Amino acid sequence: MSALIRHLLALASGLLFGLGLIVGGMSDPAKVKGFLDLFGAWDPSLALVMGGAVAVGLIAFARAARRERAWTGEAMELPPPGRIDGQLLLGGLLFGVGWGIAGFCPGPALVALGAGSESALIFVASMLAGMWFHDRFLTPESL
Predict the structure, then answer these.
(1) What does the alpha-carbon distance between residue 84 and residue 95 come to, in Å, rounded to a whole number?
(2) pLDDT of residue 50
(3) Contact 35, 43 (CB under 8 A)
(4) What are the CB-based long-range contacts (under 8 Å, 24+) for 123-131?
(5) Alpha-carbon distance 77 to 79, whole Å?
(6) Which residues neighbour 79 within 8 Å (Cβ) at sequence distance 6 or greater?
(7) What's the gap between Cα 8 and its chain centre?
(8) Phi, psi dihedral angles at 116 (to 5 degrees)
(9) Residue 137 buriedness (CB in 10 A; 0-12 / 13-18 / 19+)
(10) Measured distance CA(45)–CA(15) in Å, rounded
């Protein structure tokens, strides 16, 4: 498959994903914080969005596990099953705390940034700083 077609597939996938985030309300921090406010004015509507995403993900990963190559021709590189360690738990904890405080996770933050959100700009800048910090100080090569 040509590089142009691979790039077009990536662009179409990203646009579809971004549109889904907008339609599902995931790019609105107030909606996300309302979903996370279990003991206040809880808004359960994002549970349907997340449930749909989990269902699609389960099907996609099950199908991908049976393939040796992606649709674009590259080798499939899936993580090994069952690998849960302290780094994964700490990363999940940090992700959840950041999501709860900011109301953004990386995908929706990029969508909101594209829409001109100042809070998304702060979040994305902080996210990039955290990624730099990780790569600089927390990878096996840096230790």
Answers:
(1) 16
(2) 87
(3) yes
(4) none
(5) 7
(6) none
(7) 20
(8) 90, 20
(9) exposed
(10) 23
In angstroms, the CA 56 to CA 62 distance is 10
pLDDT, tens digit, for every residue of 51-95?
998 999 999 989 988 998 887 788 888 878 777 888 889 889 988
One-letter amino acid of 70: A
Q: CA triplet 69, 72, 78: central angle to 5 degrees?
A: 45
Selection from 97, 115, 93, 104 nearest residue 32 by Cα? 104
Length of the chain: 143
- Is the separation of the CB atoms in 119 and 102 below 8 Å? yes
Say if residues 64 and 76 touch (Cβ distance below 8 Å). yes
